[in-house]
Amino acid sequence: MGMIPQSNATLLGDAIGSFVAWPTDLIIVGYETPTKSKAKDKGIAREIESVASQKEIPVAKKTEISKRTGAKKKNPSKYRACLHTYLETTDISDGCVRLIPMDGAIFGFEYAEPLGKEDFDQILYHTQLSVGVINTYMRYLYDKLMGPRGLEQRFSFLNPMKTNLTEMIRKPDEVRTYVVERFMADTDREKLFFLPFNTGDGGHWLLVAINPFKEIVYYLDSLHNDWTTYPAMKTIVDTIIQTVRAQRKIQVPKRKANNITWNRVECPRQRNNIDCGYYTLRFMKETLLMDRTDIPSDYFDEYRCAYYSKDQLDEIKEELCQFIIELQVL
């Protein structure tokens, strides 16, 4: 067999039958790109809006972050690059969506979470997170952390689509019914329920973690507000805990009827107007990794820092991208 000549062509069409040098940084190894026809079969028209943070605070002075909180730095964007390649072969840009199956054990009811171009772009380009992305990451935590470690006996989730501030104001009875049923399903043991709370209609994300057994609420807000900023949220959470108390037939003196403990946690603080969703996801992940149903007021020693680094936030995005690829919904 003769030698194949090296090419001096400037266009790919002129280089057929010869070797062409190609930059190594443009080569992705180990991932198979799906065909266009496979993706087209799964297209679904999208008609939902994203819910995300619009709050803004001044940029804080950089503070040294604990070495123990560092995120993985090797190949920091390989799954995002892979997901981007997948999406380019699909009909997502045409307004279609993909459905993420949600088992009934995650939120108390079974359904499929739709993700469309807006949601994927949020992960790929670090913009404000929608409720769909938040819920997808909670399924990731359920599948990858809670299930393998048996943590579903100590932790659970509340669906933020049903419990955001808009729903609490417009449909308080429906919110109470949903949350009370979730709490009452586990009255025989102590359990911490994660509620990623959104201020509604494109608002701010924060984490409310509720231990109904001990009647303690942990409030983690990356803007460092406290619960008085959202009085409707506090009122309905207190009412839900009191309702569960009554259904469990727990007797307390009248003077202590409102003695529900709210702890404001000094958690890491965001430094821009888009990171609140990523912070909320890390708060849940780190609490699960610690396997503690109590959250210290000054946060966990292992994860204490002034703010999360870019690598720590990129870690969340990489986990999401890898998980979506593994689900084979594209």
Automatic annotation (TrEMBL):
Native source species: Pisum sativum
GO process terms (BP): proteolysis
Keywords recorded for this protein, A-Z: Hydrolase, Protease
Transmembrane segments: none
Pfam family of the protein (one): Peptidase_C48
GO molecular-function terms, A-Z: cysteine-type peptidase activity
Domain Ubiquitin-like protease family profile: 113-287
Family note: Belongs to the peptidase C48 family.
The protein's name: Ubiquitin-like protease family profile domain-containing protein
